[in-house]
Design brief:
Alpha-Beta Plaits, four-stranded antiparallel beta sheet, 336 residues, Helix Hairpins, alpha/beta, elongated, 14 helices, Rossmann fold
Length: 336
């Protein structure tokens, strides 16, 4: 036998109660010859058990039978409905529904946020890192405990299957800037990527892969970038063995909170005062102690260790290395 949720009980009870009320009004109208207003009045005071004084000493048999049926059906439907309402409040489901509506409203207000599919170890650390950088985050996971954990960490979290269109849309995919699949299952990553790309052609998709053969499939499905944790981890370990000082430097740059040393990227908008300046004129290193490591042009070409007379163009991206406060001063100076 199917067990209904409190919300379903309320919905079914309300429908039945409305049907009983309507049929009873019609019954009093046809059987008792009441006007429509009197018929509505009779049904209302009968179902509500207020009682009434009839003008005649006794009601006709047909009306007595109708009244008993109205009382039985009406009270049963009312009790069923209000039982569901009380259960809703007792179990906290009403609070859950209101909270879910609030969350949906907050997600709709987001723009260019990041959707993280999977709140495992990787998803959890990614979400925290993005929040430290002031980025909006929405988590998707089919595990209720993980969703509850994400909510406890004050992340917007949606419970559901990330391979389903409805779930991705609920997480605000159409307005999102980036979607990340952190699931260890390669098949899930491929389906999520394919579904997300079909829904939003402009969203940036970063997908996790465990096998080398999956990388090509993810690119074909629409992923912009594929990350293989085992490969990244192996390269980092190899670097620690062969180039330990370089590995330490990369670790300092990567780990937030361990140092104020940072590798950052700055996009040069068309109205930025840096446009058509040379690096020498920008005086990044001389005045701000910020090192311009590379310049990425709009076409995607990288110019590493650019010369002092290298010219900065609109829509270029500057890869800079320095202390956070120095980079912040450089940003402020040129409105980056």
């Amino acid at each position: 036998m199917m067990t209904r949720t409190p919300l379903q009980r309320i919905r079914v009870g309300a429908i039945v109660l409305a049907a009983v009320f309507s049929l009873s009004v019609i019954g009093y109208r046809l059987v008792g010859g009441y006007s429509w207003l009197d018929a509505i009045w009779m049904v209302t005071i009968t179902i509500s058990t207020v009682g009434y004084g009839e003008g005649h000493s006794t009601l006709p048999t047909s009306l007595q039978v109708l009244t008993m049926l109205v009382i039985a059906a009406g009270i049963s439907a009312a009790v069923y409905t209000f039982t569901g309402l009380f259960q809703l409040m007792i179990e906290g489901e009403l609070e859950h529904i209101l909270g879910r509506r609030k969350m949906t409203k907050e997600i709709k207000a987001l723009s260019e946020h990041t959707i993280i599919c999977g709140y495992g170890r990787m998803g959890r650390n990614l979400a925290k890192d993005l929040r430290m950088q002031g980025r909006g985050v929405v988590v998707i996971d089919s595990d209720a405990e993980r969703v509850a954990e994400a909510s406890a960490e004050e992340f917007l979290a949606v419970i559901g299957d990330a391979t389903e269109e409805e779930t991705l849309l609920h997480a605000g995919l159409l307005a999102a800037g980036t979607l990340v699949s952190t699931f260890p299952n390669d098949a899930d990553s491929v389906f999520i990527t394919l579904t997300a790309r079909n829904l939003n052609p402009r969203v940036k998709i970063i997908a996790r892969a465990e096998r080398d053969t999956t990388e090509k499939k993810l690119i074909q499905a629409g992923a912009n970038t594929v990350v293989m944790p085992t490969v990244v981890g192996a390269k980092q370990m190899g670097r620690m063995i062969t180039r330990p000082t370089t590995a330490q430097l990369i670790r300092l740059v990567d780990e937030k909170g361990s140092s104020d040393f940072e590798l950052d990227e700055l996009r040069v908008d068309s109205n930025c005062s840096l446009v058509n300046m040379t690096l020498s004129q920008a005086a990044a290193h001389r005045d701000f102690r910020v090192l311009v490591v590379a310049i990425k042009s709009l076409s995607g070409k990288f110019e590493f260790n650019p010369d002092a007379d290298a010219e900065i163009h609109a829509e270029d991206e500057l890869m800079v290395l320095g202390r956070q406060r120095d980079i912040a001063s450089f940003r402020e100076k040129y409105s980056l």
